[in-house]
Amino acid sequence: MKFFDVYPRFNVNVVRGKGCHVYDDKGQEYLDLYGGHAVISVGHAHPDYVKAISNQVATLGFYSNSVINTMQDELSEKLGQACGYEDYRFFMINSGAEANENAIKLASFYNNRKKMLAFHSSFHGRTTAAARVTDNAKYSPAAYMGFEVTFVDLNDIEAVSKELETKEYAAVIIEGIQGVGGIQVPKDNFMVQLREVTEKTNTVLILDEIQSGYGRSGKFFAHQYAGIKPDMITVAKGIANGLPVSGVLIAPKFDAVPGQLGTTYGGNHLACAAAISVLDIMKRENLVANASRVGEHLIEELKKIKEIKEVRGRGLMIGMEFEQPIKQIREKLLYEQKVFTGVAGQYTIRLLPPLCLTMEQADEFLTRFKKCL
Ligand SMILES: Cc1ncc(COP(=O)(O)O)c(C=O)c1O
């Protein structure tokens, strides 16, 4: 049998990682400004993380949700403290798409409505509801089409209000910062107005912080720049530094009804050990503040480069848009300068490094990057 390979791939066999670097099978070192797609938060092979998950798997890797698991309580408490949502509850699953599925499901159980409102250029995953609220028709086959969704422009509060006033929408789903859409930051005052109109119409507000959350934006969640509190927040990627773990932060107004949500793997012992270790490291090493400081420096320096049409983003979630396709620049960066970066469409390079990126590594990136222009 062969692997069912649906991925366009870099021609590099990555076999090892350490901090903000990865290494190929020939021992070549690469600076990682991609973080394996915003997944590596505390750095590759962090020794405390390695120890925590090694100890856990040697003790009890998995047991089902039919028994008490105090690690779920410890994780929920630590997460509540880290992000300031201590009165919310935390439900755990295994991937970003699954987190959004569960949030959408709970919203519809809550107000018994069917429709979803989402935004142009959004990305929320590739399973049924998550694919439908993603603004890309390619991700949804005919079988998904029964699910009703309307797309409006980001920052267009009039369009949002017009739809929500029909009171037909179960929820609005929005990314803290659009990632796949090219690092589009919603305006803070739009987020405030969105919160007001969702409250007024009893529509659930779901913040997808799967890419922009967990410190990446320089605050724990990107929506915290606007000072709002959504009804649900979905998290994945950086939460467990590479283990498949995700979750939904759920406001007190939702009831935890047995049978509505459930999962075999979600919140297992190994997943909890990994996620607890990530939060402990983030706190000890001040990684949210680091993302803010190093990100600000990178954005400021990138804005001085005249070849870049626009620099967007917050913290260590940065998009650089060019007038011309960026394929050549990225290839030079990778194959000549040994730097991994991400992409959004044909014109935008995405930077999503581990949150422990140092100022020196940021400057090293800038030096290598300038050689590719
Ligand atoms: C904002 C956002 N939501 C959801 C997802 C889907 O996550 P997963 O691939 O873990 O299902 C992604 C993945 O890139 C994402 O960036």
Looking at the structure, the CATH topology of the largest domain is: Aspartate Aminotransferase, domain 2
| CATH second-level architecture of the largest domain | 3-Layer(aba) Sandwich
Main sheet summary: 7 strands, mixed
Whole-number count of domains = 2
Count of distinct strands: 15
Bound ligands, each once: pyridoxal-5'-phosphate
Overall description:
The chain is an alpha/beta fold. It is globular. The chain has 2 domains: 116 residues, Aspartate Aminotransferase, domain 1 (Alpha-Beta Complex); 237 residues, Aspartate Aminotransferase, domain 2. The chain has 11 helices and 15 strands. The strands form 3 sheets. A 7-stranded mixed beta sheet has the order 4-10-9-8-7-5-6, sandwiched between helices. Strands 1-2-3-13 form a 4-stranded mixed beta sheet. It has a 4-stranded antiparallel beta sheet with strand order 11-12-15-14.
Topology overview:
Blueprint: E1 14-18, E2 21-24, E3 29-32, H1 35-38, H2 47-59, H3 70-83, E4 89-93, H4 96-111, E5 115-119, H5 128-132, E6 149-152, H6 157-164, E7 169-175, H7 188-200, E8 204-208, E9 232-235, E10 246-250, H8 269-284, H9 287-303, E11 310-314, E12 317-321, H10 327-336, E13 339-340, E14 342-344, E15 348-351, H11 359-370
Helix pairs in contact: 2-8, 3-8, 6-7, 9-11
The protein binds pyridoxal-5'-phosphate (PLP).
